[in-house]
């Protein structure tokens, strides 16, 4: 089946990027775009899309406001696309099928579209609500329960994610920095990133992830060159390709 999609975002650059990425996904048609919630509502009512890729922060009504007021049958599958992680719980409470952070990675977009396609093709409403509630509960428990285990001499130490300052890739290993010391574990930074709560941790470099709450400042070193300063004084480099996203997150905190 061909999945009919609407893009809602007030940033033309973001709309064009999504359109470009979606062209590589088979059996998907973008039937329209909108830059405000009222225009999006009119477009959704008029076209009856299967999927809505929805930004959250827009002029006037937000994407969350749009979903709260959306009353169409059958309702489209909504995937939130935003630069901020702080809306994740509210988005899932509103039955969002997925939550993508900008800049959107092609792999994550493909996964979100596949999830939307499965829902359109017959996911039962009761199962969907149960799954989303489980996701919300998991999100709420992440900061409290998630921990990483690291070698410590002849034993292993449990490190709650709330104790981490930042994570640093070292070839086939990752160094876990806490305020007191660091631990080296055999793992990939990308694999650990997928397990960390996205509203608490931020990728700032090809080889570095920071816990946002553990950062106390941002220092400019040169043109588009920055480093984050942790509360304990540790300096973490910010990659040039990550600088814009880091600046957005820092300004929003």
From TrEMBL:
Gene3D superfamilies: 3.40.50.2300, LytTr DNA-binding domain. Residues 4-117 form the Response regulatory domain. Residues 148-252 form the HTH LytTR-type domain. One of its GO terms (molecular function) is DNA binding. It comes from the Bacteria. The keyword Magnesium does not apply. Coiled coil: none annotated. The modification 4-aspartylphosphate is found at residue 55. SMART domains: LytTR, REC. Keywords: DNA-binding, Phosphoprotein. This is DNA-binding LytR/AlgR family response regulator. It comes from Caulobacter ginsengisoli.
């Amino acid at each position: 089946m061909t999945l009919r999609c609407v893009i809602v975002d007030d940033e033309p650059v973001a709309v064009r990027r999504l359109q470009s990425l979606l062209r590589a996904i088979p059996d998907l048609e973008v039937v329209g775009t909108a830059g405000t919630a009222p225009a999006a509502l009119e477009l959704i009512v008029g076209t009856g899309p299967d999927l809505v890729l929805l930004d959250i922060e827009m002029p006037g009504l937000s994407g969350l406001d749009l979903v709260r007021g959306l009353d169409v049958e059958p309702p489209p599958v909504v995937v939130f696309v935003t630069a901020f992680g702080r809306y994740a719980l509210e988005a899932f409470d509103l039955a969002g099928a997925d939550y993508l952070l900008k800049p959107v990675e092609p792999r994550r977009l493909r996964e979100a579209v596949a999830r939307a396609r499965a829902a359109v093709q017959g996911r039962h409403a009761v199962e969907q609500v149960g799954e989303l509630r489980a996701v919300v509960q998991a999100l709420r428990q992440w900061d409290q329960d998630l921990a990483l285990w690291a070698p410590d001499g002849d034993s292993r130490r449990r490190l709650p994610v709330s104790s981490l300052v930042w994570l640093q890739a070292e070839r086939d290993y990752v160094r876990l920095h806490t305020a007191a010391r660091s631990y080296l574990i055999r793992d990939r930074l990308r694999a650990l990133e997928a397990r960390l709560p996205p509203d608490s941790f931020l990728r700032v470099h090809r080889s570095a992830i920071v816990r946002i709450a553990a950062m106390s400042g941002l220092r400019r070193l040169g043109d588009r060159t920055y480093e984050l300063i942790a509360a304990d004084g540790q300096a973490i480099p910010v990659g040039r390709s990550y600088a814009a996203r880091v600046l957005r997150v820092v300004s929003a905190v």
